[in-house]
Amino acid sequence: MSFYSIAPFIQEYYPQYYSIETYPAAQCITIHKVAEEWGLFCNFAHTPIVLYGVTFKSAEQLFQLMKFKDKEAVRAVFQARNPKMTAKKWERTHRRPDWGCMIVDAMKFCIQQKYEQHEAFQVMLDKSEGKYIVEDQTSFPKKAPDTWGTKLCEDHYTGPNLLGRLLMELREYKRLDYHLPANALDFIQLLKK
């Protein structure tokens, strides 16, 4: 199992999300690239999130920053053109030791902030009513999708689809419940110094 795989964390700390789901392709809205029709659902979409006077350029940047408490790592990820790839470089040595038990709550927090701060995202989520939302990783080189997505197999999308499931949960309840450690956002203070 890869160091970067989150499946063991989901299995241990979030068993309610540890499953493989199947969705009929004809009833799905797919998330693949920001420039596509439903691209606003991508965490990389340009939807700035403001927290405590600091602006994050996307939900993805905020999520990646939540992995760290070290000033050097936080600054590197914040300034990076691609926060996901930069975070990967720092994770082996600087990732918070409790990241596994907060990963889904961190994603819920980021998506909730995006929802509260962007009306266009709210409108698009409402517009998707009646359809399944899936992250389409069919073009990814790996044989199986990662925990966030699905792959198209004949006329069905199959995979854990954690991102799509969280978006559908948000669409249904208008709110994602999350429980973060008290120091989850301490990295923001490092950006203000």
From TrEMBL:
It comes from the Bacteria. It catalyses: 5-amino-6-(5-phospho-D-ribosylamino)uracil + H2O = 5,6-diaminouracil + D-ribose 5-phosphate; 2,5-diamino-6-hydroxy-4-(5-phosphoribosylamino)-pyrimidine + H2O = 2,5,6-triamino-4-hydroxypyrimidine + D-ribose 5-phosphate. SUPFAM superfamilies: YbiA-like. This is NADAR family protein. It comes from Bacteroides caecicola. InterPro entries: NADAR, YbiA-like_sf. Residues 36-172 form the NADAR domain. Gene3D superfamilies: YbiA-like.
